[in-house]
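Pasting as-is:
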Amino acid sequence: MEVIRAAHTKELMETKLKGLGFRGEVIGKMVFSGVDINVRKASNGELQVTDVTFDGRPLDPDKVYRFATADTFTFGRFFPEIAYASEKKYYMPELLRDLLSEALQTYGSP
């Protein structure tokens, strides 16, 4: 729930990214699959998450949920809740730059 709340803040959505530019210039809006999120506009103009359902059922605060995200969000700056999670599994530990380098060495440049 905290990750979803953080993802809906104007501050996060407008955070400028640094790097080579292939990820874009700002983080933007997070998209969730199987999750319905109700929000309302607060008096300060910010969106506030009012309730969240997963597969049509309200989130259970006593249940552990698993989700997938880009590795960028596992390091703590944006979502400390993810960084401090006791269990994380990386399915593809290589960085994109490593994959690009390997592909260029294997197949040559276009």
